[in-house]
Description:
This protein is of the alpha+beta class.
Amino acid sequence: MNELSVLMHLLSRRVNKVQLGATEEEICDILNISGKQQKSSFSQLIINLSRYIEILGLNISYNPVDTHWYITYEPEISDIVKANPFEDKPRLAASLFTVLVSCMANLGSSTVSEIAKLRKKKGILSDLRELENQGYIKLNKDSGEISLTPLIGYELDFNRLLTNLALQMKEDET
């Protein structure tokens, strides 16, 4: 197998229920890339593979939640496929967004009581359990602590989300 075949395999594998791809460290270890040129060699491999698979409608993406690189479909195709993972349950989307914001503000975790306070909704625990069953969050029933799983990073384009939020805030100021 050549390097691009190995890289393609690593980036397209499912690690577990909520994790895809591989970290830079895993890739460099498997391909035996080390030393001063590790970063540039890794970048060059990613760029070369990206050019090679782009004609197939595939892209290489990065999940900042778990620092994994992975293969995705072209954004237009994946937007249609993942248009609404919550189907007819906007309350789950709202609850997940509240968890996301709260976890980002609290350096990675939040609590059930804080989510209930922010969401201003009774029975938030049923939403949180459903989000946990879908693999988006981890809920510690004893302490009431909530944390995000890497799955959210695969289904949400953080750059686009933050850009849209910043644009909306700027528009609201004017």
